[in-house]
């Protein structure tokens, strides 16, 4: 029997605790570069977000990722997240 604990993370947009696999990590490096971290292993300050369009748009509208990461989040990051969310659905 495999009784390992499932790592939970909190979505910065919705505040829900979810299985880490259902979330995607956005990370800010020491240099201040913000990127989508699909491995979940990049160094830097990370924020987890649910991979669905509503959560991503909410985060964008309220600037949630930028506040969490204390960095400017480029438009392209949100576009990348939305594309990932679209892929997840199919």
From TrEMBL:
Pfam families: YlxR (PF04296). Residues 9-82 form the YlxR domain. InterPro entries: YlxR, YlxR-like_sf, YlxR_dom. CDD domains: YlxR. This is YlxR family protein. It comes from Metabacillus halosaccharovorans.
